[in-house]
Amino acid sequence: MASITLDDVTKEFGDGGDAVVAVDDVSLDIEDGEFVVFVGPSGSGKSTLMRMVAGLETQTDGDVYIGDQIVNQLGPRARDIAMVFQNYALYPNMTVEENMSFGLKMSTELSADEIEATVTETAEMMGIESLLDNTPGELSGGQQQRVALGRAIVRDPNVFLMDEPLSNLDAKLRTTMRTEINRLQSDLGVTTLYVTHDQTEAMTMGDRLVVLNYGELQQVGTPLACFYRPANRFVAGFIGSPS
Ligand code: ADP
Ligand code: MG
Predict the structure, then answer these.
(1) Domain ABC transporter, which positions (predicted)?
(2) 104-114: buried (b, 16+ CB within 10 Å) or exposed (e) per residue?
């Protein structure tokens, strides 16, 4: 488990007159075990921020810390972070079991038996143990998302990054999965950064809310503080309005 610190982190794409400042001088301390939800309009830099924490994108300026270690030079694998995206990105030709064990085979010293036991245990936790021999194409959207979560959890990462993980699911499933993600997160105590554009997720899931606009931090606070004591007009309009 680990805290995360962003210290004056900036990301520009392109240069000269075409430059886009996707993330603009963001500083943020996230505590070990905290669940932080990131919201903001499309293009406000949420995904770019996640990708920099994951090591999939290198910042133009500033430092990213995991625990007290600067990880600027570390690639994704060395950061021990698990990501879940909206489009699942499961391997279509592998079974659920193979999808879940693939990362473990690549990154641990566990024996084949130990990997199988870990995958089975995680599959039971996610309610997908009966699907282990199926391929992703045979599963519903909700089941695929459970597999994606299971695949992230099975590696026992320090940090979860979730970028709109539920946005492809119907409303009823979203409600179920919201509860389930919160339950898993508190059971596992994993530091979690969660991106959403869903108002209900923003108001109910996290310990704190981070509001972004044009790559700049607008407010960091509890959902209630952002709702009742918005730091500026943008936050008042964004948090108060239905998405
Ligand atoms: P969000 O996830 O909040 O919708 P993004 O982080 O995807 O926002 O994008 C922030 C800004 O950075 C947008 O203006 C987007 O067009 C730009 N951007 C993101 N990725 C790239 C890229 N690989 N190349 C150029 N511009 C990018
Ligand atoms: Mg995005």
Answers:
(1) 4-239
(2) beeeeeeeeee
Query: What does the pLDDT look like over 22-35, one tens digit per residue?
Result: 999 999 999 999 99
Burial of residue 188 (number of CB atoms within 10 Å: 0-12, 13-18, 19+): middle
Paired tokens of 189: 């105590």
Q: Which ligand is nearest to the CA of 164?
A: 2
Residues 6 or more apart whose Cβ sits within 8 Å of residue 127: 146
Residue 155: φ, ψ to 5° = -85, -5
HSE at residue 63, side-chain half, CA atoms within 13 A, is 10
Using one digit for the tens of pLDDT, what is the confidence trace for 223-237? 999 999 999 999 999
Contacts of 166 (CB under 8 A, 6+ apart): 86, 145, 173, 174, 177, 178, 196, 198, 201
Q: Is 235 exposed, middle or buried (0-12, 13-18, 19+ CB in 10 A)?
A: buried
φ, ψ of residue 96 in degrees (nearest 5): -60, -45
> Does 45 sit in the ligand 1 pocket, CB within 6 Å?
yes
